[in-house]
Structures are given as C-alpha cells and as structure tokens.
Design a protein that fits this description.
Layout (H helix, E strand, L loop, with lengths): L6 H11 L8 H15 L5 E5 L5 H7 L4 E6 L2 H10 L5 E4 L11 E6 L8 H14 E12 L1 H8 L3 E4 L2 E8 L4 E8 L2 E11 L3 H10 L2 E8 L2 E3 L4 E3 L9 E8 L2
Parallel strand pairs: 1-2, 1-4, 2-3, 4-5
Antiparallel strand pairs: 5-13, 6-7, 7-8, 8-9, 10-13, 11-12
Helix pairs in contact: 2-3
Length: 249
C-alpha cells in the first residue's frame, strides 16, 4: 500500500508557493501546544506526530521537554524540518502505510490530513496508529467535517501569497476537494482530496480498528462573509473536529 499519488505533488507545491510564517505563528503554535496537552489531560513524555510537515508543532512541544518523533512523506518538508529542528527531535522520512517503528509512544497524532485514501486505507492507518501507541496512551486525530465542506466551503475561492485555491465537494466520495494553482501559472493545478466523516462514521471505523473515542473537540471555521477565521465553531459548522482515542479494553 502506498499513499495516494496526489500527496507529494500537492504538498511540495504548497510548500513552494507559501511564504514561511512560522515566526509569525509562534503565539498560535503555543496555543496549539496548550490545547494538545489539555486534550491529552495527563502528563506525557513521548509523542509521534505523523504527516508532520516541516515540524512546527513538534518543535513547539520539544521545547516543552516532550520527546518528539515525526514522520513525513514529502522529502522537501523533511529537509526543511531537519534544517529548522534541534537534534532532540527524531525526524523520519517515509509513508505511514508502510513505515515501521521499533518502539511505542505515549501519544500518536495526525493533525490536518486524515482521509487521504480509501476507507480501507484509513482503517489500516488507524490499526497501525494503535500499534504505535502505548497501551495506556492516547491518539489525537483531526477529522474533516462533511457538513462544512458540503454546505459552507464548496465553491469558495481565495488567494494566499503566490497561490490561489478553490474548494469543492465530491458528494459520491464524501470528500473535500482543495485545488491550488500559482497566480502566474493557472494551468498548473494541484489538488488534495480528503475523505470527510460524520462522528458516527468515524466512531464505527475506530471501533473496527480496536479503538474507542474518548473525546471530541470541534475546531474552527472560516467565515466566508467577513473572510475571518473563527478559532472555535460548533460541531456541525467546524471545518474539522479532533478526536481523542484509547485502545479498546
């Protein structure tokens, strides 16, 4: 099994087209780290973050004394992460459907990206994540909310730095579709497509993977009237919600 073929081209171009704003995001990264620690609810020492990008949240948590390990598929993002990160962060390049770890972690996370492949792919990934977490550990995963992408975001366009994008919704596959192109080259389009799940759907899938949802945390949403991002939204209107999982006993 390999990760869907759009992943590397999409995230490579996204990285090329967007300016580096990590320093500007420092306050928000600290808030994200606060939220992660609050959602886990107990002290933890080790964490694996998959789909880790350039490792921004890993660096933030590493600075708090948490032993961080990351896994990312896109070579350019891994290279950037290694250039920016301290040697205390264990950075891996590989596909989370096939990569093997020789140890388990207190926390395993997947932020902003779950839903890449088919339902069978997602189930396989959940089973792998379960094997990576300690028996008394927790998983945190962001799940895309179909209601937001179907009824709120579909058809909306925006410009970000050198890129432009448009959202659509694949009803048959229940997938959010996010297409990007460079402002100077509108014919070069890269697209990500992520499966969206209702709470009931993801609960059933997690149960089949031997996992139990122990917490649900609604995320934010874009207000397309004011073009402002709202940091908190309801479960029905958020663009994604985070689930906390434990191994089923």
């Amino acid at each position: 099994m390999t990760t869907n073929q759009w992943v590397i081209p999409f995230y490579k171009k996204q990285f090329e087209w967007l300016r580096d704003i990590e320093d500007e995001m420092a306050v928000y990264l600290q808030k994200d780290a606060d939220t992660i620690e609050e959602q886990i609810g107990v002290k933890f020492e080790t964490m694996l973050d998959i789909g880790a990008g350039v490792g921004s949240i890993a660096r933030t948590l590493d600075a708090r004394g948490i032993s961080m390990t990351t896994l990312e598929l896109v070579p350019e993002l891994v290279e950037a992460a290694r250039l920016r990160s301290s040697k205390t962060i264990d950075i891996h390049l590989g596909d989370f459907y096939t990569y093997e770890f020789s140890k388990q972690f207190d926390v395993v996370s997947y932020f902003d990206g779950f839903g890449v492949g088919t339902d069978d792919d997602q189930l396989k990934l959940l089973e792998r994540m379960k094997n990576w977490v300690n028996d008394d550990g927790s998983l945190l995963i962001d799940i895309y909310n179909p209601n937001y992408w179907r009824n709120i975001a579909a058809g909306k366009e925006m410009k970000i730095d050198d890129a432009e994008r448009i959202y659509s919704f694949d009803e048959a596959g229940c997938r959010m579709v996010d297409s990007w192109w460079h402002s100077e080259n509108p014919d070069e389009i890269v697209t990500q497509s992520l499966r969206c799940y209702t709470v009931d759907e993801i609960s059933t899938m997690c149960k089949n993977a031997g996992l139990t949802i122990t917490g649900i945390f609604p995320g934010g949403a874009m207000d397309f009237v004011t073009w402002a991002y709202m940091e908190t939204a309801t479960l029905s209107t958020c663009l994604s919600y985070r689930i906390k999982l434990k191994k089923t006993t």
